[in-house]
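Box 3.1 A note on notation
Throughout this textbook, protein chains are presented in two layers. The first layer is the amino acid sequence; the second is a token string describing backbone geometry. Keep the layers aligned when reading.
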Amino acid sequence: MSDTLVAPPATEALLRVRGLTVDFKVPVKGRLRPGKLSAVAGVDLDVYRGEILGVVGESGCGKSTMGRALLQLIPASSGSVDFDGIELTSLPKRALRRLRRRMQMIFQDPFASLNPRMTIGRLIEEPLLVHTDLSPSARREKALETMDLVGLNPDWHERYPHQLSGGQRQRVGIARALISSPSFIVADEPVSALDVSVQAQIVNLLEEVQEELGLTMVFIGHDLAVVRHLCDRIAVMYLGKIIEIGDSEEIYQRPRHPYTTALLSAVPVPDPQVEATRERIILSGDVPSPLNPPSGCRFRTRCWKAQEICATQEPPLAGAEHQVACHFPESVAPAASPAR
């Protein structure tokens, strides 16, 4: 089996990630030396130009850490991150700073990520202040133009974050990310801190600006319905590794990894009759500690299909356009009902 990443026809990767690892040192009771927590453990990933790639998984699986490492907001412990032919992990800080206008991030909490002492206009203009030599009037004009793009009233230019609602503050965060005309954006759960009534508006806004500006985007989320609606492809993470990746509809209609099947079984179906007949797969046990992950396949301790080989050999991420890291991916429906 080959673990070569294959692009869909007529596409080109803007971002190529190989062997990306992010380790943290953490104190461990009873040890003199700190332990090593691998939040991201050897990720291989291609993000193609003009696509939205969704990244899903349980809390603590490494989604947000990986997203920050793609932009080198968190340094990689090992591996490579190639952005449009430029290797980011070995790039000097000054050169990386110059490149940042092409790579932006939308954060999860729109209130925590905005300086409460700065006006909305100043917050949105700040990337231009850092990365360009535009005059104050030109920066203001660009900010007003970007505010209009994301659905913010230009009259709010002199307001402060606390004077806006959560959805409006997230639009400020989106405007700030867009104003420097980036080609790549990482959106880290941008709707999870918002009211349900506002989430759809922000998702639709992201979809509109991505299509209008031709952006490449990594969308990190845990709401599988939102990810399905927005994303072209989906990558499923578990305990620091990508265990399945493929076309959005393909993943939803024909999941090949048991973990993906369990995740999708928790997604409500709008048809009451169909929902009433479905059985949700409740995984047994807890997520293992990343300080001491299981040998072989990291999911094996909770998998109803696990066999001896799963404990001794780590399955590679293999396949063509729909890839899966599983020794037994041909059938993901459990033969016998697991713990439910």
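The two ends are 33 Å apart (CA to CA). Residues 1-10, 332-340 have pLDDT under 50 and may be disordered.
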